[in-house]
Amino acid sequence: MDPTANTLRIPPEMLLYAEKHEIFDLMQSMLRNLIVDKPEDPIQYLITLLKRDSIGVPRIMLLGPPASGKRTIARQLCERTRAVHITEPGVLEGETELAREANTHTDRLQAIPCELWVKLIQLRLSKVDCIRRGWVLEGIPHSRQEALLLQEFGISPDHVVMLEAPDEILIRRNLCRRVSVSPEDENRVLSDDNTATRLLKYHQEVSALQRTFQNCLKIIKADQSHEEVFAQALSYIQHRPRSLAPYMPRVLLFGPPGSGKRLQAALISQKYNLVNICCGELLKAVSADKTSMGELIKPYLASGEQVPNDMVLQILTQRLGRLDCTARGWLLHGFPRNTEQAEMLKETNFIPNRVFFLEMPDDAVKEVVTLRAIDHVTGERYHPLFKPAPGPEVQARLCQNPRDSEAHLLKQLSCYSAQVPALKAMYPDAVHVNADQDPHAIFEMLESRLVDRLPKCYSVRPDTQEAGSGEKVGE
What number is the average pLDDT over the span 67-96? Predict the structure, then answer.
């Protein structure tokens, strides 16, 4: 059964709304909270959860050996993301029965039982500030047992940052910190009489912790400047975890003649099972059908005139609205050719979520297009530089398509160059790729941006917010 023959249509507005507001991730997060907290009144619980605006806040664990700079990096991350900084002393604060019991163990120089410690952490993270703003756990958990128990209590991070450095550097840092420390850190540093022992204890647990958080772990070398460590940590936490939400690529591919649009569209659609839609080929297929629309556009195609925009859009929207495009995603090239067509496509709500411009110098375009020829027997294309004919017999029967003549190409380039600046302005987030290179390198660039999820930009303080900038790849 041909899936394109299925006339079932799903309104594009449904997909746009779900993606824009991340409905799938929202439902997943709400369900996870329901399972963990098991409220008596689930409906009121969800209403309260949504009112607190606690969906999507940062949940970060910052781990590392003594003197690796956890405190400094944690403070900077909290300042940047407005998350709550959670430390061991902070967890032990309060007048609750759990806190008093834990402090009793501390006063007796005894280790706090793991389950009691995790309950204290859960109690701190259940407070309104952590729910609304998110949290950064500094140096917590200490062991795999503690990490697994946290997971049983429903405490699971989105990102785990682990600092590491050679022991010699860490011991040297700790000795330097004894000389000059801030008042709030004085007791913590001066009471550390055996750094080597603490490092040994940390090394006994670090491998197990890495295995526990391997799916959300970023290891950063701490034997570099704090600025560089912070930059790497911030970059990682702003990288969004892979979402389980259905992602349907809707791709627009622009480029001058000879830039390889057809080849790249074929490679991408084949690997990712997208519906490859070339507007020109679609119009030819419709004109070959004995339908009213096919009969209407046939004279335009026969005379080489441009098919009216309203007819093209009607054919295109019918194709994009079919079930295979909705279920698998689509890749469109050959349309839109100007801003008028782009505006018309936008009004139909078939809005792309990835736009690529293949860029190529005019001289390179001429070299690609005007020298290529076709074997009229097999229909295969050959080029003396990139794909020579396999033998003299094939070479003898090659002929040039009139559309590949230099005069026709210059006319096409002139039209494309006149429209492309306005099209780029309409798609400011588009990715610009240098197409004057190996096709496989181009494909890798397109693929990397096609599958990469957009970063999560946590709210930042007004004085630290940075303006976004456009990006070009492969130039």
Answer: 91
